[in-house]
Amino acid sequence: MGKFFVSILKVIVAVVAINLLASFLYTRFDLTEDKRYTLSEPAVAVAQKFETPVIVDVLLDGNIPAEFSKLKTETIQLLESFGSKNSNIKYNLVDPMEDSGNPQETVAQLQSLGLQPANVTVEENGKVSNELVFPWAMVNYNDQTVKVPLLKNKLGSTAEERINNSVQQLEYAFADAFTKLSIEEKKSIAVIKGNGELDDVYIADYLTTIRDYYNIGAITLDSVASNPQNVLDQLKNFDLALIAKPTEAFTDQEKYVMDQYMVQGGKSIWMLDQVNMEMDSIYAGGGEAIAVPRDLNLKDLFFKYGVRINPVLVNDLYFTQIVLASGEGNDSQYNPLPWFYYPMVFSQNNHPINTNIEAVRLQFTSPMDILENDYQKTILLQSSPLSKTDGIPRVVSLDMINQQPDQETYNNGNLPLAVLIEGNFTSMYKNRVKPLKLQNTLEEGPENKMIVISDGDVIKNQLRNGRPLELGYDKWTNSFYGNKEFLVNSTNYLLDNTGLINIRNKKVAIPLLDVKKIAEQKNKWQLVNIGFPVVLTLLFGLFFGYYRKRKFTA
Questions:
Q1: Residues 139, 90: Cα–Cα separation, whole Å
Q2: Nearest alpha carbon to residue 450 among 294, 243, 245, 208
Q3: Which of 146, 424, 529, 545 could form a disulfide with 177 if both were Cys (CB 3.0 to 4.6 A apart)?
Q4: What does the pLDDT look like over 26-70, one tens digit per residue?
Q5: Locate the ABC-type uncharacterised transport system domain: which residues (predicted)?
Q6: CA separation (Å) from 479 to 112, 285, 356, 470, 484?
Q7: DSSP string, 377-391
Q8: 472-481 long-range contacts, CB within 8 A, separation 24+
């Protein structure tokens, strides 16, 4: 009997020694197939920058639905991984509704901070209830706080897909937040003006979002007529130029300045409408308006880079909705109706820019031809397989809502709508007469990249009482689209030199429990979990008693 207790004592001493050693020599082994607990090098690099405490408040404590418990577990494990790389990164679990005397007031306060809740339907024991969950984290560093959304919704996704999408973006979401807090020198973005671009109020939400990463300024191209060299010199102080829905043609001189800016290394995002058509024109015209081409004098510029935007309209059976009123006065009703000229564009997940994003809403967009040349071109957005083109000029009428579309004619789909162009940029004026004289011009430039989107409204946020709403939110249908995430990802990709954006390509697969099987086998597994340990204890007691009796009566 003495040898038995000595063996037990040795085991206890060994366990204590191993735990003490582990506290000094900490390491982790990631045995998952998708390596979801192994941080990417860019994420590690940004996490290691902090020399003072970073406190992450995770708002997923308390009684939360099962699917959010999995998200909570994955979030904690990820933050522990970050903490293993930098001990200054710590986390707290917070129940935002704990000790809340007035839940409605608490919810309103959280929403005023931009923390939108998730409304979850919970079914338990045949009873259905709705619960509000705040799937957010707050990263606090010095006197700064960055919000991190933990839940990733995608249109039509199942509960399992929603959790997979959410876990897949966690590493990037936290690495992105750490980047915002650790930026020491911001890059600069120039908002191009002078050719009838969107007013600032219509791009306000996008600019507010990227202000955490970048400095923002404005450059007016119509000054090229009086002092082109000064405009180019000012423009070269910016890392990226943003051209948001110009409505007036560029002069050859303005085009040459932009050409030299890009050839000399400036990144750019072009959002262009080749067709002049607006919903406001249709409403003002009594339900119809004529769509006509819009000449921006940019065809030869983009042709040089292997892209041609065709002045026709994309008509897509994967559409978003518009809202029309019927009735008068107090009897008015607002009905969401299909609008085939507003495509709902689902991501191909073929690039870090568009991986795991919500569907993007485009308005009166045009298809692009991709031409063969030395530049690498990646199609970031394209129409659905069930789409076609409508030529212009044409009358666009609200009557099309009442007409049944002929699906057999929708056989010219997968039309490119947004393209990334990369390579060593060459001036379109190479071996040509220059429209004006500039100093230190180049005909062959370094490695560069730009994005062309054939819709100027992709960046346009709606207004309510004159104030900008979130980009991608449609106040008429209360729907959210992925426009802002797509554009922010595009900007970060063009300007990111750390490779952080590539974390978005990481794929994970989270095995979830079968809810139906849980309900069917609930009693069985409760009995196993509760009864089996009791039976095992009784058997051990009987065996030990029998052993002692035999030992001491022998």
A1: 10
A2: 243
A3: 146
A4: 555 555 555 556 788 888 888 898 889 999 999 888 878 777 888
A5: 186-490
A6: 19, 27, 18, 11, 13
A7: EEEEEE--SSEEEE-
A8: 472/358, 472/361, 474/320, 474/361, 476/322, 476/323, 476/334, 476/336, 477/320, 477/321, 477/323, 477/336, 479/320, 479/321, 480/153, 480/358, 481/320, 481/344, 481/358, 481/359, 481/360, 481/361
Q: For the chain, report the end-to-end CA distance as a whole number of angstroms.
A: 13
C-alpha distances out from residue 63 to 68, 74, 92, 95, 245, Å: 10, 17, 16, 9, 47
Best CA proximity match to 194, nearest among 237, 241, 151, 155:
241
Strand partners, 217: 190
Secondary structure percentages of the chain, helix, strand, coil, to 5: 35, 25, 35
Q: How far is the CA of 3 from the CAs of 15, 17, 327, 471, 541, in angstroms?
A: 19, 21, 92, 73, 19
pLDDT of residue 398: 92
Residue 494's nearest CA partner among 352, 308, 300, 299 is: 352
Q: What global pTM score does this model have? A: 0.80
Taking all residues of the chain, what is their mean pLDDT, rounded to a whole number? 85
Q: Bridge partners of 145?
A: 140
Task: Label residue 155 by pLDDT band (50, 70, 90).
Answer: low
Identify the CA nearest to 323 among candidates 483, 475, 456, 469. 475
Q: Which two tokens stand for residue 354?
A: 């568009």
Q: Which residue has the tokens 């063009």?
A: 494
Question: Which residue in 486, 497, 499 sits closest to 210, CA to CA?
Answer: 486
Residue 101 one-letter amino acid:
G
Rounded CA separation 551/541 (Å): 15
Closest C-alpha to 297, from 355, 330, 252: 252
Q: H or E element: which one contains 7? A: helix 2-24
Q: What is the DSSP letter of 95?
A: -
Residue 4 CB burial class (10 angstroms; 0-12, 13-18, ≥19)? exposed
Distance separating alpha carbons of residues 293 and 377, to the nearest angstrom? 25
- Asked whether the beta carbons of 370 and 307 are under 8 A apart, the reply is yes
- Contact of 79 with 91, CB cutoff 8 Å: yes
Burial 281-315, CB ≥16 within 10 A → b, else e: ebeeeeeebebeebebebeebbebbbbebbbbbbb
Side chain identity, residue 129: S
Give the total residue count for the chain.
554
Cis peptide before 435 (omega within 30 of 0): no
Query: CB-based burial of residue 6 (10 Å sphere; 0-12 exposed, 13-18 middle, 19+ buried)?
Result: exposed
Residue with tokens 């404590």: 61
